[in-house]
Prior knowledge:
Elements: H1 2-30, H2 35-52, E1 62-66, H3 71-91, E2 96-102, H4 109-122, E3 130-136, E4 139-142, H5 151-168, H6 172-176, H7 178-193, E5 200-203, H8 207-223, H9 235-254, H10 259-263, E6 276-279, H11 292-298, H12 317-332, H13 337-354, H14 359-367, H15 372-390, H16 394-402, H17 406-409, H18 412-419, H19 427-435, H20 441-451, H21 455-462, H22 475-481, E7 486-492, E8 499-505
Parallel strand pairs: 1-2, 1-5, 2-3, 5-6
Antiparallel strand pairs: 3-4, 7-8
Amino acid sequence: MNNGYEASDIRRAQALRDANDDLARYEQLIGFLTADERLGVAAVGDKLIEDAGGLSKLADYKVMVAYGGGKDSTYVVAFVRAVQLRLQLAYGRTFLMRVANMRHAGVVSAVMENIDRVYSALGLLDDERVDLLTIDHTEIRRFRVDLPLPDKLVAINRLDVLMNGHRSAGDGRPTFCNSCNLAVADFYGRAAWWRGGVDAIMTGDSRREQALYAAWILRLAKGIGVDVQRKGMTFQDLLAALRGVGDAYFRELFGDDEHEPAEREVAVGDRSVQPTFVSIYDLVSYRVHDHWDLIVDFLGFRFDDLAFSFTESDCANPTLMAHLRGLRVEYVEGRTYQAGIREYLEFAETMMRRKEMPDRLIDLALGRYDSPEKIDRQREVAATYAENAFGLGEDELVAMVFSPFTNSGARLAEFVERCHPERVDEVPALHAALRGEPGTDSAAGWLSEVSGLSITHLRTLYRSALVDFAAGDTVMARVRAGDPHKSQVHTVDPRSGLPTLELISGR
Length: 507
């Protein structure tokens, strides 16, 4: 009897402490929200009760938030946590919350540290009502701030950067984002259907944005010959369309290699479980300066030098996009690295203002490059990051922006003459190695060393064309044609030396 009484007494005391913790955290959190946003928290909570089938079923209802670790998705996580706590305090029960973060080689440790601080401030780390998942391609684990990236994932990302970069002369979006965006689709499929799946996915995208994105996917899929479901499309149907796009894209990238496209196939989930999307777009403001106190002061978000790169606050790859522009202008066009950086800064400022980023963040991003000395320092930062994240040195990056292996090695002689003049006499042997002729092991070994690619992948490039983005006759060109993250910059025509405009892409 006494033991039973003591156990129940302990449980009641723990429940009271938990309720007090929930109340304190909820009051802290909503203190940063406007009156309209508080009404939005209540409205979303009412909708989730209805969608769950009533209060009695709410505790089994699962809501997912995809968390990249950036400033915008940080706000969505905080908003959904406010909804969860409000329902618990009002009704004594609430939904299960799944927060899933996707990683790739561009996600530096500072991003994981931001995520950890956000989770801690929101009380998510030890809450049984919350699943915190880290998804590294096919590997799904509970979040831990120091979780190492799997070597296999890094190898996939490295190869994709090199193959995409060689086909696009190092243009920002194709090089870093095309494969990554398909990986995001795969991430959604794996996160949403893991261990029985979720009932709803909470998003900050408006319904209009979702519809436009779905329409673009359908047009892209149809344009490359993918058979897609057009009426009554479910989330799974959309992922299936993206799987078709991905299959076509990676077949184009890797040629006859069947392994690499299969390794990157988009997961589509289980048709018996179809999560609904709940948008909070109309209920909140996404301008970061409207929530600066919440994100920075309460949640502990920090705009780290690498984690915050131009338009991104969860990925360091834009720093490399700028670096590649500098290398391209220096080595391919024979101007200066600084000229290439200034051109990328012109592009980046256009993108940041288009996204309505606050002046303080624009100044922070651009200020890192506002003198020749700072540009030199950022060059070192980018070079170190390329080596640490992708195992790529300057030789490999320069080879990539030169794209000397495509079109049967059309630019190989120029590349060797300009960047490796000591091997000019070996150009015929290099071509022979790329054609797969016998007795060319030494030439093949040097080509692999200077490019960072296996001779098999180099021969695939040799049989492939440098993508003509104006022609639109490849999947890569079709993807960039529909990508809004591009703009013209003022540059110099490398042939005439006259001022001109060039369309580049990036973040």
